[in-house]
Every structure is written in structure tokens, then in C-alpha cells.
Amino acid sequence: MVSIVLLIADAYFIGGIRAALKKWKFSHTKAFTIIYWIVCVSLITGVLLSIYVKLSVGMRAAFMFAFFILLIVKATFLLFMLADDIRRLVVRLKNRNKKPESVPVAPDSNTIPRSEFLMKAGLIAGAVPLASIGFGILSGAYDYRVVHQTLYLPNLPKAFDGVKLGQISDIHSGSFHHNIAVKGGVDMLMREKPDFIFFTGDLVNFRTVEVNFYQHIFEKVKAPLGVYSCLGNHDYGDYSPWLVGAARKKNMDDMLQAHKNMGWDLLMNENRRLKVDGEEIGILGIENWGALGRFPKYGRMDLAVKNTDDLPVKLLLSHDPSHWDAQVLPQYPQIDVMFSGHTHGMQFGVRTNDFQWSPVEYIYKQWAGHYQQQNQQLYVNVGYGFFGLPGRVGILPEITIFTLRSGAAPPSSKV
């Protein structure tokens, strides 16, 4: 139904475009019409495929971004088209009661023509958000923001009360082209002095070799109680063609070694006991597990929770937030908090303290920030790097700093 409404709107828009480009003869040709409808139908089809069918991550991001960018441009243009149609209607009503000889007649038409000025103004106004978004893509790629979040945990041992946890996710080192800016984000994280740190997957885009140029930067990510990591869907080399299986295995071996080189404790369906002043909590990490069919299910929760029954608090690193609804909530009530990334907030949208929106919410129920269901919590970090879209608009790269607190959240607190 929504697709039909969009196609009807597109049929309306083409008239305004032709009026604005009245002196451009090509806009009134059959070829222009064909190209226009190919673009419109392709974008709508691409969005539907992105939601319901298995597409590559890059194609999905490209379709969704292009669709919503053009939607913003069309919405801006629509205001001018409606204004012109209202003007034409008013003129028509005023002329209806006049004698025929007193009504001015257009030299080449018996109808009231669209205002070429208004249509051109509409196109210019539509180009303003487009230009702003283009600037935002470039400026937002490395505009790191520190987000502070309090996590209240009823069973948290007193020794951990006030402990600081840092999280980064989705580095996607193959997309970077500015070493100094990347280092600046790491410096911001280190200035927060977290006691321990999580990295929740997607170190690279396609192949492990991408991170070789940035290991010297990310090896600076250190914490007194350790840095713990998990793998994301991009870290397995699944999106890269391999001529022989040995090359794929070598790529994976290199990935494991990269985490070691940086001093990160990579959790592959396993757990660690974190001890402070004789008290312990559990850190669990699984391989990628995504509920959507296009993403691999390598994760083994049954292995990750092994021998953790005695731990009062269990923190889970799981790259894909869809894992929370699909498996963690229904089958693993002992998990107190799950930490994820993966969505990037689609690198496009609006995010403030009180409101957030992105096209990705039509794919992922939990896509950015803090979520809670009964006693279990989820936090989705929107990512440190970028992929597909070469930057960010509105959804800026995130460094999250959590403060762990014993007890239940105060009724008025925003967690």
C-alpha cells in the first residue's frame, strides 16, 4: 500500500520537475520519462528487497540511503508544488464568476500554467538538504561522541559499584582514510579512563589485512581490567571471494592474531571471570549470531554460559542486536546485559537525548541505545567507523561509557 502511494506521488512530482525545467527540452522527452520511472521504481524495489530479501550489506545501505535522501528532497519540493496548486486553484475560483472577455488567457494554453518560478524555487530548496547531507557525510565520519550511560544491576557485587566500562563497535578499518582522526577517537576513549572495555565486532569490511594499517592505533585501547572483544559478521571473510579454502583459513587466523596483537581478549563462544576485591562477575562473548537470514549464526550460547551459574552478573558481547529478542530473552534469562553494535544506526537519521529515528528501525527493533525488558538489558552502540555510506549524517560515531551501579534503577532515572 505504501509503495502505491509513493508511486502516485512520483507521478505527481514529474509534472513539477518538467515545469521547473521548462526550457530544458530533454525533460519533456520519452527518454526522460523512462529514466525517471526506472529510478523511482528501482529505489522502492530496492528498499523492499532490503527489508524482506537477502542482499549484500553494501547494496542494502545504498538503497535505503538513496531512497530516504530523495524522499527528503521530494518532501521539500512538494511544499512548493502544493503552494503553486493552491495558487492556481484560487485564481481559477476567482476567474470562474468573471465574464469570459475579462479573464486573461494564456497565450499557449486554456488552463492556468504552473508557476515556473515556484517550481524552480522548489528545486533549489530541495537541493539545500541534499547539499547539507553531503557536507554531513564528510564532516560526520570522524565526529566521535562520548555517550554516558548508567547501568543498574540488582545483583552487582559491591566491589563493582561505580566501575566504568567502555564500549566501541564496528570499527570497519577498511573504510578509514584519516589516521589522525581515527587516533583522536581512541584518545577520547582513553581520556574517560574506563576500568574495562568491550569491542563488539566488525573490525574490518572484507579481509583482515585492512586492519594492519591501524593496529598501532587500536593497540592503544587498554584498560586495567582488560579489553574483551567478539567477532561481527564482517570479520569472517564471508563477503570476500576466496580462490582456495586455505586463503580463507589464513584470513581467519590473521583475524585472531590481530586481536592478540592489540592485546584484546577475543571471546569465541566462551567466558571470563572478572575479579575485583575478591568478588566476580562474568563476561561472555559469542561469535556472530543474527536473526535475519542474511547473517551467519556462528554463535553458541550453550558454550558461552558454561560454568557461569555461580556468577551474580553476566555481561554478554554479541554483535547483532537481533540476537537479544530471538534467543537471549526467551532462552537465557541469566544474561543481565547484552552489548551489541551492527546497525550503525544506518549512519543516517536523528539522534538526541529524547528522540531518535533512522530508516534502520524498519529492519531492527533495537537499533541504538538502551533497551530493557523486565530484568534484562540491551545496549546497541551505533559504531566507531562506517561502511557503505562514506560517512555519517545525524547518527554520529559513538564511544559509550557505562557506569555500573548496584541495585534497581531509581523510578525517575533515565537509564
Summary keywords:
415 residues; alpha/beta; Purple Acid Phosphatase, chain A, domain 2; 2 domains; 6-stranded mixed β-sheet; 14 strands
Describe this structure in words.
The chain is of the alpha/beta class and 415 residues long. 37% of the residues lie in helices and 17% in strands. The chain has a 6-stranded mixed β-sheet with strand order 1-14-2-3-4-5, with helices on one face. A 6-stranded mixed β-sheet has the order 6-7-8-9-13-12. Helix 8 links the parallel strand 7 (279-285) and strand 8 (314-317). It is elongated.
Structural class: alpha/beta
Strand order of the largest sheet: 1-14-2-3-4-5
Order of helices and strands: HHHHEEHEHEHEEEHEHEEEEEE
Distance between the termini: 37 Å
The residue fraction in helices comes out at 25-40%
**Number of E-type strands:** 14
Describe the structure concisely.
The chain is of the alpha/beta class and 415 residues long. It is built from nine helices and 14 strands.
Any chance you could write out the topology, listing elements then pairs?
Blueprint: H1 2-20, H2 30-52, H3 57-96, H4 116-140, E1 145-153, E2 164-168, H5 179-191, E3 196-200, H6 215-218, E4 227-230, H7 245-261, E5 265-266, E6 270-276, E7 279-285, H8 301-304, E8 314-317, H9 322-331, E9 337-340, E10 350-351, E11 356-357, E12 369-373, E13 376-380, E14 398-406
Parallel strand pairs: 1-14, 2-3, 3-4, 4-5, 7-8, 8-9, 9-13
Antiparallel strand pairs: 2-14, 6-7, 10-11, 12-13
